[in-house]
Structures are given as C-alpha cells and as structure tokens.
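Fold this: Serine O-acetyltransferase
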Amino acid sequence: MFERLREDIQSVFHRDPAARNAFEVLTCYPGMHAIWLHRFAHVLWRNGWKWLARVVSSFGRWMTGVEIHPGARIGRRFFIDHGMGIVIGETAEIGNDVTLYQGVTLGGTSWNAGKRHPTLEDGVVVGAGAKVLGPFT
C-alpha cells in the first residue's frame, strides 16, 4: 500500500512542475484524493459491497469534484491534474501512466449492459474538456 502511495506521489512530481513536496501532494491535490478514494471504493465494488462502494464514490465526488464510478478499472500512476468536473464511467478502463485534465468525461453512449465506456491505453494524456464517449480503445 505504501509503495503505491510513494509511486503516486512520484508521478505527480514527474508531471506537475508546481508540486513542491510530498506533504503538499498528500494534502492539497484533490486528484490524488479522488484516486485514493476510488481505489478503496473499487475494492468494495469487486467484493460485492456495491452500495457502500457507491457511498464512498459519492463522498469522493463531493470532496474533490471528480466522479469516478467504483466499477471503473484504473492502472498505476494515474494522474488527475485540475480534476474538477472529471467523470469516469463504470466500464471505463484506464492503463498505467495516464493523465487527465479538468473537465474530461469518459462516458458511455448507450444504456445497454456490458462495455459502454472507453479504454485508455498506457501513457495517454487527455486534454482539458475532452469528451471521450463509447466503448472503444
């Protein structure tokens, strides 16, 4: 767990020149808070605690302005910069070393069950305000 935390903090330093120290990242980066809350919610979701996972996810949205469905699968070193308004849907899949900027939506285009949201492969950067919709890679 602490190794992942260190890895997350280092990913901020690699992608945000404004980051000054680990304490600042731990306390002042809502994108990181959203990711950490999502990881907890995702574990709950995978273990059948769907309602509690949604509660944790809702709390994360309220605290950070970032909405990540607890069913979304997110890789390592994921970085959300200026996260307000980000929405990540239930069947979205995000690879390692991905960066999202403010206002990004990874959304679905149907109400059918199954894969509805995009897959982002390793190293993708999605710019501010982008709307990536549908079940494609």
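The beta strands are 67-68, 73-74, 79-80, 87-88, 93-94, 99-100, 105-107, 119-120, 125-126, 131-133. The radius of gyration is 14 Å.
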